[in-house]
Amino acid sequence: MALKYIKGKIAGIRKFIRILLTLEGSFKTILTLSVTILLSFVLDYFLHFPLKVRTVMLGIYLCAIVYVIARHLVLPLTRKISDEDIALAVEKQNPQLKDRLISALQFSRLLDDPQYHDSRDMTLNVIEETEKLSKGINFFRVLNFSRTLRSMVLPIVFAAAVFSLYNQFPKLSGIWLNRNVLLKQNAWPRSTTVFLVRNEFTVYDDRSTEVNVAWENSGSSKGILWYKSSNFWKRAVLNPTEKGYKATLPQLSKNTIFYTEIDDIVSSAYRLRVTKGEVKENKEKKPNEVGITLPDTKLVMSKGERLSLKIYASGKIPSGIEVYFRNKGVEDQSWNSELAGHQGEGIFKYTFPPMIDDIEFYLEGNDDVDGLPVYNVEVLNPPTITKSYMWYEYPAYSGLASTEKDKPEQHGNVKALQGTTVRLLFTTNIPIAEANVLFPDDQQEVYPNTKLDILKDGKLLATSFEVKMDSRYRITLRAKNGLRNTSPTSYYVRMMRDSKPYVKGVFTSSATKGAVVVSGVKPRIYMLRTATVPLRVDVEDDYGISNIAILRKANKEDTWKRQPLEILTEEEEEQQQKKRKGKRAHSYHIFSLEKGTVVDEGSTNARKLQKGDVVYYKLYAQDNNNISGPGTKESDVYSIEIVDDTQLLKKLNERLLENKRQLGRILDLQLTQKEKIDDFLSISSAVETGDLVKIHQWHFAQKNISRQVHDIAQAVRYVMWTAGHNSIWDVFTTKKVQDVHRLLLDIASPSSSTSFTGKSNEAATNIIDAYKTILNDADKGQSKLRDAVFSQEEIVTLLEEVIDLLGQWEDLRVEDDIKRLLEESKKQQQILKSWTE
């Protein structure tokens, strides 16, 4: 066969050309693919293209790759390469052939043509000569292997870069694949990652920490727990468990933050507060246990509670964190945004207004702008106390009955006697998991904080404490759904103290149950050495009396002599009739001056009392308080001065004369009041509003006269009591003083502690009746005023009579006359005594 050798070489060259074209096209395709991958990676990593842009970019990349494949692989391989083209290329490389090779190929085709009639021998000679000549040349010099090798360098470099990128950053490569090829919404790792810090846990620094993650969707794959150590993030493996995942952290020396990453889902952040370990060295140290639940994008808040967000920014710290929020369930509602304040060290804080409705929110900062995760806040009614019940168990000494079981006080404010046990019962609106009663921090030794007993499905709470001092307390609640009462109600504790007993003494007609009270005890009284002084001691206390005594001494004695007295309690019916509060008791005592003794200063012997001696005494009472200790009370110091007959009679005479002078002033006052009303009745024709003020003033003036007359009546009675217990007046003198006392009572006699009966009260009543009626009925009002004037005239008459009787003592100014009267009084008493015998 002609040109067998040459055609074989040309076929070999054609084959190599196709191989080289395939290699060059393939490597150009690899280069294009590598460049598009790197370009797509870089652009999307830094620009974070949204899905639509990534979709368009993927289309552009695919078009570029298809173009390169078609342009540099498909088209070159489908293009026909003729023998002449190869021959021309060989001759170009071998000029010595002088176109023989192309001619030989053409002559070879002519020999195969039956219509070729030229000299075949000459043609064959040319072909053979060319074939011989071609055996000495290298046909493959026409192939440019260096070009092919050069075209492989860049594709290999870029392919190696892609392969290295995948090996070094498999996670980033996977994210790129999902985002730019599979067009998923996976997020790139950011320079800044914003976390919501959910909870804080306290751990000890002398042991490891086990973190348990509860998650229903846990699978067989492992997760990662990232925790910050110094300035670097370290990882701990989350191994699958039956209920989720578990990781163990080494001993921690500083506070740290951790979060979990499971199946590309990142949790919120959690804070570990490290504290000093308290376990003894010889004791086994159990690991710290920390538990979280995923997903953790749901928050439950109490209505009215403020949601305070603690936000942590990892990586590049942004200048601010944007909090985007809106109400849930509202269609077409736009997101509102607020800026969280920077607290330092990557911590930001934002506080929502009081929660009313459910909301949702997400956080953004720097390049963390994917709007994920979205947190849902469910707002529920907080746990509250719906009803309060309280029972008192009073201390036994008080004698008070405890609160009846079926009649509790329905509130939580405590007002009870010291030592009272208070039992409290509260009902709540939802089941409670934990409840505490909290007292002020500075009262913990007296009122320690305690947990309440939870009863009846968690809706009934019980506690008790003893009242020891004034205080306040709050009931904090944590419901089973995790909610707390953000504004617990504050209740007060008012301790009612057992007051000290009140003690007073009064002079009486005798020391018996039927004795009549004459007057209150005077600071100093004057008595004869032979006199007796009957005294009643009245004591009042909140809850009971345990001791009554009288303390006495004479002259300059240093020591008070104590004499216990019998305690006589009043009947309960009498107390109820008088509507008295507390317990009352009394006792009687008689000062027998004749039996009294005194030890003079510098002497050790006691002697009987005599003229000039002064007996001092005070009253003592003690209650029955056995909780804080008995309360005691002493009265003021009173005194009895021993005088002789003449001195005593003179002092009584002076008191009566003083009473007379006081009655004279009262008489002038009464006449003045009477004249004012007379003038008003004689002049006034029409009553004006200003007249009412006058009438009202007259009413008070008349009541004042009643009080003054009553005070003088009491003073006269005291004079009568003193004279009677010293036996210094005769029957006729006593009768005169009794008449004075009776007439004064006709003017003003007490009906209660603030009101009186008698002529003066009649005048005051008529005046006030006139005040009420004179504007509407002038005649009736003036009639009442005339009645008042009539009563005042009677008062004037009585006062003049009393003053006249008291005037009979004015001549007794000389001491001899007093002695004479005393002697006559004694003689008359002896005569009366003989008559009675």
UniProtKB/TrEMBL annotation:
The chain crosses the membrane at residues 21-43, 55-74, 151-169. It comes from the Bacteria. Keywords: Membrane, Transmembrane, Transmembrane helix. This is Polyketide synthase.
